[in-house]
Amino acid sequence: MFLKKLLGDKQPLPPPVPLKKIGLACLGGFLIIAVLALLSDATSTPLILGSFGATCVLVFGYPDAPFSVPRNVVIGHITTTFIGLLFLTFFGPNLWSLALAVAIAIGVMILFRVVHPPAGSNPVIIFLAQPSWSFLLFPVAIGAVLIVIFALIYLNLTRAENYPKYW
After folding, report:
1. Residue 146 · residue 80 · CB < 8 Å
2. What sign has the CA pseudo-torsion 60, 63, 66, 70?
């Protein structure tokens, strides 16, 4: 029975995405990461986070998905980073603290309806980098807000549909 489940439901692949939408998604991701990198260099302030690449996949590739709305992007990133920093500070850099931080981050995002899957990697990033608490503001909060501001402008200029679907 279990092995049969591994075969899946045998449904067809989703329909292909039009090339124009793919191109616009690529351009959106390119532009915001370039802007964040240029601002980082110009201000000598970190504004890029590894999980922001995955955020760009969702926001620019699938802007109508619930995981892509601004509240989920910003609050998801801030919440999971806060949890990662909290666990690192109070329980130290050990595997149980890391695993628990990820688990709590998942639960809190689901509980507060701010699920943004790329943000689930933020506690792992915290434990690998072991940054100070300022990491919560730079790059996480400011970077996530800049991505959303850019997405609001870019997506509403390049698509017929509204972004976001809800706040």
Report:
1. no
2. positive
* pLDDT one-digit tens code per residue, 68-93: 999 999 999 999 999 999 999 999 99
* Residue 16 to residue 100: CA distance in whole angstroms: 38
Compute the radius of gyration of the chain from its Cα atoms.
Answer: 17
The 10s digit of each residue's pLDDT in 86-122 is: 999 999 999 999 999 999 999 999 999 999 999 999 9
Report the distance separating Cα 24 and Cα 59, nearest Å: 11
DSSP assigned state of 61: I
Phi-psi region of 10 (alpha: psi -120 to 50; beta: other; left: phi over 0): left
CA contacts within 13 A on the Cβ side of 1: 0
Q: Does the global pTM surpass 0.85?
A: yes
Give the CA angle between residues 68, 99, 81 to the nearest 5°.
45
Angle at 18 between CA 165 and CA 26, to 5 degrees: 75
Contact (Cβ atoms closer than 8 angstroms) between residue 50 and residue 92: no
State the amino acid at position 100 in one-letter form: L
